[in-house]
Each structure stands twice: as C-alpha cells, then as structure tokens.
Amino acid sequence: MIVVTRLNRSRFAVNSDLIERVQESPDTTIVMVDGARFVVRETMEELIAQITAFRAGVLAQASGLSAAARAEDL
Known about the structure:
Elements: E1 2-5, E2 11-14, E3 19-24, E4 28-32, E5 37-40, H1 44-73
C-alpha cells in the first residue's frame, strides 16, 4: 500500500496493485481498476517512486524470508 494525500490534505492508503493508471491534467488523478478515481496532491513522478519503493520493499522482504527458510533447511 502507498499513502497519498487528497487536495484537502487528508491522507489515505491505496493498494498500488489495483492502480490502472495515473494521469496529470493538471491535477494528478489515480484511476483504479474498478473505475474509482482519486485526485491527489502528489505528482505522477512521486507516485511512481512510491510504488517502486513499495514493490522493492516487498521483494527485499520476500528475499530475506527465502534466505531464512534456506538457512533453516541446512
């Protein structure tokens, strides 16, 4: 999940796996796979960076768990 900010400064978390697209025109709009739309303060570049960091963290954590499981098997 990534945390984003509405234009009124309230924050909420979005499941980044369910984002269909992000567009700027001029406000940044997140369009979800179910058609829901959220207008947020973050730029498209900031959202992409958040999503990339989140997914990298998931992969790093999974890799660490896999390494720990292999170590237990030894």
